Amino acid sequence: MATITVTDDTFEAEVLKSDKPVLLDFWAPWCGPCKMIGPVLEELSNERDDIIIAKMDIDENPEVPTQFGVRSIPTILIFKGGEAVATTMGAKPKAQLAQWIDSAL
């Protein structure tokens, strides 16, 4: 499954009310580490069906990042049952991200 794009307007429906856990990547087009982690998240989204991988551009959607205290990017949160259950910051190698996802699920 490819990554999905989430906005301030679609956050509740696509993340909080999702039947599956959701990994949400807060990013911006000008962020170097965000560009590095983007392809890794795409690979993971194509390999895993146990989690939805979503992205939110913080420049276009300021409300949700503020609500969750996002101060640096990339910041990645995992949501389960409408609650944020895990957070990590910075670009990580694929294996490390996969382990982090497994530990959160």
Task: Please characterize this protein's 3D structure.
- The protein is α/β, with parallel strands linked by helices.
- The protein has one domain (4-83): Glutaredoxin.
- The chain is 36% helix and 26% strand.
- It is built from four helices and five strands, in the order E-H-E-H-E-H-E-E-H.
- A five-stranded mixed beta sheet has the order 1-3-2-4-5.
- A hairpin with a 2-residue loop joins strand 4 and strand 5.
- The longest helix is centred in the middle third of the chain and has 16 residues, at 32-47.
- It is globular.
- The chain starts with a strand and ends with a helix.
- The model has no long low-confidence stretch (mean pLDDT 96).
Summary of the model, kept short:
The chain is an alpha/beta fold and 105 residues long. The chain has helices at 11-16, 32-47, 63-67, 94-104, and strands at 4-5, 22-27, 52-57, 75-80, 83-89. Strands 1-3-2-4-5 form a 5-stranded mixed sheet.
Question: How are the SSEs placed, and which strands pair?
Answer:
Blueprint: E1 4-5, H1 11-16, E2 22-27, H2 32-47, E3 52-57, H3 63-67, E4 75-80, E5 83-89, H4 94-104
Parallel strand pairs: 1-3, 2-3
Antiparallel strand pairs: 2-4, 4-5
Pfam family, one: Thioredoxin
Site (Deprotonates C-terminal active site Cys): 25
Site (Contributes to redox potential value): 32-33
